[in-house]
Design goal:
The chain is of the alpha+beta class. It has three domains: 149 residues, 2-Layer Sandwich (Beta-Lactamase); 204 residues, Histidine kinase-like ATPase, C-terminal domain (Heat Shock Protein 90, 2-Layer Sandwich), CATH 3.30.565.10; 64 residues, Winged helix-like DNA-binding domain superfamily/Winged helix DNA-binding domain (Arc Repressor Mutant, subunit A). It contains 15 helices and twelve strands. The protein has a five-stranded antiparallel sheet, sandwiched between helices. A five-stranded mixed sheet has the order 7-9-10-12-11, with helices on one face. It has a two-stranded antiparallel ribbon with strand order 6-8. The longest helix has 37 residues. Keywords: DNA-binding, Transcription, Transcription regulation.
Length: 433
């Protein structure tokens, strides 16, 4: 009878975990596993998220310092279906952990998705308990794999966005290729170089670009996040050839910050800046281009460092338009990550283009039901509550109408409401409170 009661309790717990909304599955799982393996925090590494490759849950001072690169290092030594335990570096220090890897076959969840429990003690976990943790993780990853293939359009939208942004990250290689070709044209058009010198410089650029493209492809397969200063250094390296043999001077303003950026954010920021610089170089006359990154406060329930601002300034004629930048699909890339683009052109003085990318979901006030919404989703909900239609919201936020529909579907799902009217009513009620 005792065994049957234990089995019933385990099945009930499993049902609670997989029956929870997707954004709550990790927290539910951590709570259930806490009764089996005592732990201070749990962390998950998976490729199925649009904005970040990993999540962490538990003690804030510990979970908040876990990095994707630490999880990736642990993942290298864990085989699917075989729990691993020992000392590993996580949250900046060596700690006892139990790690399990799933064997998911779906596209939206990464094959071999990893779960790491940061334990409270060093004593070995009994094999039976480790096997139970593995079983729960296999159940969760299998559920997510099935969800990715059978989900209805609304809940499936985030997974589609994740796949889309991964494709855009791969497309960054194409952007780098375009930058290399532009640099080659700059050399060939330069009046300061004779034929022999131009040929030598062009050959050097071509070889360097090929080496960099191959190295970047390898890094893209392995990196889940990058320190901000290193991400900017990669950007600077790709921009210098564009201007090294022309009259335009490149000025750089690195972020001076080494905090990690999610790989998709770093990819998007580099690709957007390169695209903007290419658009800026079409202006004449032009003497100077300044490129800078800054990590700052998003401003709404925000904590320091909630957004990345990438700025491109020039001293050109000051007639740069949003349409000139839009040909490089900058707006679509930013919209996929909840970002935005601002273009400020002053005739005779130059132009400033600023791309803003959120680095995470802003902190909400305690007990705020809207805490599950991202920054862009809150902006859409505010306008939805005012009675604005999708087209009007798209124009105000300078995003496509299809992107607005995507955000509205997410809002309805996260707030557990079925209509725009219900979402608007909830927003009005919370504002009145």
């Amino acid at each position: 009878m005792a065994d049957r009661n234990a089995e019933t309790a385990a099945l009930t717990a499993a049902a609670e975990v997989i029956g929870a909304p997707l954004e709550q599955v990790h927290g539910k799982l951590s709570a259930v596993l806490g009764g089996i393996v005592a732990h201070r925090a749990s962390a998950e590494l998976s490729g199925g998220r649009a904005h970040s490759p990993f999540t962490a849950h538990g003690e804030p001072d510990l979970a908040g310092r876990v990095t994707g690169s630490e999880l990736a290092a642990i993942a290298d030594g864990v085989r699917a279906g075989r729990p691993w335990q020992g000392q590993a570096r996580i949250a900046g220090d060596e700690r006892p952990v139990l790690a399990v890897s799933g064997a998911g076959d779906g596209d939206a969840t990464a094959r071999g998705a990893l779960l790491v429990l940061v334990r409270t003690e060093d004593a070995p976990v009994p094999e039976a308990d480790a096997a139970t943790v593995q079983a729960f993780w296999d159940l969760v990853t299998g559920h997510l794999d099935r969800f990715s293939t059978e989900a209805v359009p609304g809940p499936l939208a985030p997974s589609r966005t994740a796949a889309g942004e991964r494709a855009r990250a791969v497309a960054e290689l194409g952007e780098a290729h375009a930058a290399a070709l532009t640099a080659l044209l700059g050399v060939l058009r330069s009046r300061a170089l004779d034929d022999t010198a131009a040929r030598a410089h062009a050959t050097e650029l071509a070889v360097t670009s090929l080496v960099e493209l191959r190295a970047e492809a390898e890094r893209d397969q392995a990196v889940t996040e990058e320190p901000a200063d290193q991400a900017f250094a990669r950007l600077a390296q790709s921009l210098r050839p564009l201007l090294s043999h022309g009259p335009v001077r490149l000025e750089l303003g690195p972020p001076g910050d080494s905090r990690p950026l999610a790989a998709d954010v770093a990819h998007a920021a580099r690709a957007v800046v390169r695209a903007v610089v290419l658009a800026v170089l079409e202006q004449h006359p032009l003497d100077r281009v300044h490129v800078g990154w800054q990590i700052g406060d998003g401003g709404v329930h925000g904590s320091p460092g909630t957004e990345l601002r990438a700025t491109v300034r020039d001293d050109g004629p000051g007639d740069l338009t949003r349409d000139a930048v839009a040909v490089h699909r900058v707006g679509e890339r930013l919209a996929a990550l909840g970002g935005r683009l601002d273009v400020d052109a002053v005739p005779g003085w130059g132009s400033t283009v600023t791309a803003v990318l959120p680095l995470g979901t802003p902190e909400a006030a305690p007990g705020d039901p809207l805490a599950v919404l991202g920054a862009r989703e809150r902006e859409v909900l505010t306008r939805l509550a005012r009675g604005h239609r999708n087209r009007a919201i798209a124009q105000e936020l300078q995003i496509s109408e299809s992107t607005v529909k995507f955000h509205v579907a997410n809002i309805l799902s996260k707030l557990s409401v079925s209509t725009r009217g219900e979402a608007a009513a909830l927003a009005h009620t919370l504002r009145a409170a």
